[in-house]
């Protein structure tokens, strides 16, 4: 198995600022913000995430038991039909 630390060793590191300079050049005057993905509720997603965006890596996800119960509301007046849904 390949060591992830060496997976991209042949490529030189590049900062987000350098990456964005190249993107702006390729856009030829078009605003960089035009490339952002707009989601409902006014959420805007940057199409070029970079390691520079996170000063430290987030902790790994942990599997813990929250004793959650999952339920779903089913509308209906007929109990048999509601059970089939």
Report on this structure.
There is one protein chain. It is built from two helices and two strands; from the N terminus they run αββα. By secondary structure, the protein is of the alpha+beta class. The chain has a two-stranded antiparallel sheet with strand order 1-2. β1 and β2 form a beta hairpin. The protein is elongated and about 65 Å long. The chain starts with 15 loop residues before the first helix and ends with a helix. The mean pLDDT is about 80.
- Measured as a percent range, the helix fraction is 10-25%
Query: What's the SSE pattern?
Result: HEEH
Rounded to the nearest angstrom, the distance between the terminal CA atoms is 46 Å
Q: What is the structural class?
A: alpha+beta
What is the overall shape? elongated
Strand content: 5-15%
Strand and helix map with partners:
Blueprint: H1 16-27, E1 37-39, E2 43-45, H2 79-84
Antiparallel strand pairs: 1-2
